[in-house]
Amino acid sequence: MKRTRKPIAALLLFAVMFVFCGAAFADESAHERRIRMAGELIREMTEQGDADALGDVIKSGKGVAIFPSVTKAGFIVGGQVGEGLVFLRKPDGTWTGPAFMGISGASFGLQIGAQSVGLVLVITNEAGLRAFTGGNSFKLGADVAVAAGPVGRDASAATDGTAKASIYSYSITKGLFAGISLEGSVINQNRDANKAYWGKDMSAEAALKKPATDKRVASLIKDLKALIAKAK
User: Fold this and answer.
1) Of 39, 98, 31, 89, which is closest to residue 60 (Cα–Cα)?
2) Cα separation of 198 and 196, whole Å?
3) φ and ψ at 196, to 5 degrees?
4) pLDDT of 110 above 80
5) Distances (CA, A) of 107 to 77, 116, 139, 148, 182
6) What are phi and psi of 190, to 5 degrees?
7) 3-41 as b/e, with b when 16 or more CB fall inside 10 Å?
8) What is the mean pLDDT of residues 46-61?
9) Is the pLDDT reported for residue 207 higher than 70?
10) Is-contact 180 80, C-beta < 8 A?
11) Predicted local confidence at residue 5, as pLDDT
């Protein structure tokens, strides 16, 4: 009988931990969950072998949009949708924001399956900056140029002022699709999430002028700095 006590005690401890962890996440607001998941994605990307390339591009860019979970599913006709947040990076290395945004779009082709994609968009120039701080929404590929983020030597070339697109995309894919197409996707401001975070109605332009010094995003900003530190 004594031999069974330890496994039972371990199971009980695990159950208690599961309940408390579940309760903690249940207490999160939508924007708090988005911030936490964004940090998890940035840390995961930092652990990749080619993280230095992404660090290089972010270091030389204007800011980042982080969409922790863009869900894509379809049979013949597919679609994608996700929620994220944007930070801008000043030349002195300090950050501003966040502004909360969503991404949605449709794609066509022989697609069967579903996936969740962790997506980071790097804003490389003034045109990309205007897209995120301008109106309520904009279309990737139509209103502003988007391309797959460069890696290796290509990343070094993209940081010397010769970026081929206003927005570079990087993703970590989980699921059945090999990748994600962003052409035609729409990015729109999430005014409700901005209001919930800032405590008042706030446009993306206004939110992205505010220093990102709030303790709620301190860990995420630290994660972004750690990723940039990977740059060569």
Assistant:
1) 89
2) 6
3) -65, -40
4) no
5) 6, 15, 14, 17, 9
6) -110, 90
7) eeeeeeeeeeeeeeeeeeeeeeeeeeeebeebbbbbbeb
8) 90
9) yes
10) yes
11) 52
Number of residues in the chain:
232
Residue 175's identity, in one-letter code, is G
- Which positions ≥6 away from 71 have C-beta within 8 Å? 80, 81, 82, 114, 115, 116, 117
Identity of the highest mean pLDDT range in 121-130, 143-152, 153-162: 121-130
Which residues does residue 65 pair with via DSSP β-bridges, in sequence order?
86, 121
In this prediction, what percent of the chain has a pLDDT beyond 90?
55
Question: At 106, which helix (H) or strand (E)?
Answer: strand 95-123
Give the three-class secondary structure for 21: helix
Alpha-carbon gap, residue 217 to 64, rounded angstroms: 14
**Residue 215 has what DSSP assignment?**
H
Residue 146 has pLDDT above 50, yes or no: yes
23 pLDDT exceeds 80? no
User: Crossing angle of helices 191-198/30-46, nearest 10°?
Assistant: 100
Least confident of 50-54, 64-68, 174-178, 204-208: 174-178
